[in-house]
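Write out the 3D structure for:
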Amino acid sequence: MAVGADRPAFAIVDHPSQDGRCIDDTGHGDLDRSEAACIAQIPNLAQRNGAGLKLTFRNGHTRVYRNQDAKCASGDAKGCVKFQLTGYFPDHDLMLLECGRLEGVDWLLVRADTGDEIGIVAPPHYSPEKRWLAAVASRQGSSSLPDGIDVIPAKRDRVLKDWHYRTPEDGKWQFEFERWDGEDEIVLTAKPVGDAATMPRSVVVHRRKTEWLFK
């Protein structure tokens, strides 16, 4: 997508990830992923009963994510949340949950074997060899949810660590995912906040040994 082009429909980022989109889901944005398609793909792991999304993990435990419809209707920004199952990564048995709030949307990656949760800012992109998942978001508008970058090892590993960066409230740059460059570099576009005269530039998040850092 050319710099300055409009975002695709139902997208919070310029390059919405298609990774983890469930079978028969025909959407293309971040916010048009189909829960019905995901439940049809993994009915042994996920069931919807009204306001409740029940997940059954492979260790036998269950958890219900319940929509707080009354709080959302009353305008309770702190208590309002609605959950949808919006992705599944079969290679690594990961489920993606969308958490809709009055102030915006964030996501959870949930490991189907144990139910462990990892909060991320957008649906993530696989690295070329599917060893990592990267999520990047700089929201437009008045959302008060944090922007930033998340890098998650697709497979649980004691050596491989999550990496999370949150953009400061007074940050001068907004970051957008462009592409993976191998397994150890993520290329981002950095756009200046409120400065149309400064051109966007490319920056890299690079893995050195066991740590991720801006290069």
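Residues 96 and 109 are 5 Å apart (CA to CA).
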